[in-house]
Amino acid sequence: MIRETVLGAGLALLIVLAWQGINVAPVVFFGAMFFLLFHFVGFKGESKSFSVVDSGKSSKGLVKFEQIGGQQTAKKELLEALDFVRFPERIAKMGIRPLKGILLAGPPGTGKTLLAKAAAQYTESVFLASSGSEFIEMYAGVGAQRVRQIFSKARSLAIKEKKKSAIVFIDEIEILGGKRGSHSSHHEYDQTLNQLLVEMDGMSINEKVRVLLIGATNRSDMLDSALVRPGRFDRIVQVDLPDVDARFEILKLHLENKPLEDDVDLHRVARETFGFSGAHLESVANEAAILAMREKKEKISEKDLHEAIDKVIMGEKLDRKPDREELWRVAVHEIGHAIISEINRPGSVSTITTTSRGRALGYMRQSPEKDSYLYTKEYLEGQIAILVGGSAAEEVVLGNRSTGAANDFQQAVEAAKRIIAAGMSSLGVVSPEDLPKSISHRVMQKIIADQEQYVRGILCNYQEQIHELAEVLIEEEKLSGEMLRSHLNFTKQYAVS
Length: 497
What we know:
The protein is an alpha/beta fold.
């Protein structure tokens, strides 16, 4: 009401001044500039674009820890830290300093935001969430004001809702809390970070409202050392990609409300999703339901889940169809990958297809025997052999290569670099950064060339099977690992060493 009255009075004054013959153009110009500045920046930094999400009295939108699949280690460590907020009398009795901040660090899609929401539900706290990018503006002082604003709002909301604690969650905190001095254009980033440090230092156990800051990042190396020291972010909780058991739990959670066929083996699906985050697995469950609905089925089959895995990895099927000659080359290429994979580790091939997805005309998908985090030289050389198996099959069967192997060679080079960096090459232990590029290139070339020569020798003995399987693959568009293995008769002399 006051704003409308002021605007009306100002407009009436301008009309009167203009009627008196006074030039009001400068007044209109500066008034318009002030209005735009107020609209985009706001008064004292309170921008309309800066928003926080609070839980409200119903705590709508919050989740419980039981609703988050996997991440047992992260949940255990987080719950221990949250007990300091939930049971303040215990920490006061023991003379323990209260935690001021918890940092959730890990790859995208691993459930950091869900863990923060569950933390608010567990501690019965007011929950405010924002992104680091919402604090930064080109105008000096705005970010610092917004930091003060979000902490002030957390305390006022907690008092209003008669709660004793509040959780402030800042996603992508590396934007707000990056290393000071790294932004040379202006000091807005540094001022904003300084204000955040001041707010964290001001948190006290004797306050009416206990405020806990939870930050989330997938680039913890970018954070300023003053932010991650003890006394500010007291706990750094690593939220990693789920292992096979955690993936099984997550799939069960996301498929709870979806009708499944009785013979679906979720353990097998979990094994084939190595490297998937929780977000990927949610997408697999959703895409499988969409595929089942598209085919007018009442229940989701295991075939739908495997098709959904392919879609999440490679993208949607494309309408483009290579001609017969290109399709034959693609089939030979993928069969080459598959044969070497089966020789390297029997039973490893899950699917071979010539269906175009994304930028790939075809692909061979492996199912890992187990989740591995350490690799031997033999394993990496075996992976290089599988990667060059496609181009080697083209050479053996068709007499030449194609550009389809370019991505395979890039991955083979990365595997060779890992061999060198781990001190497992002929160079011994070296510093990759100090190693001359010419020497590094020569050793990488030697590692890959040895595997190419080895693979060509193997595939020369399987030309007939390659022709047969390529014909079947062209007709069916997809081959299962079981069908591939039924066509092959391996001998131990070709085991990859």
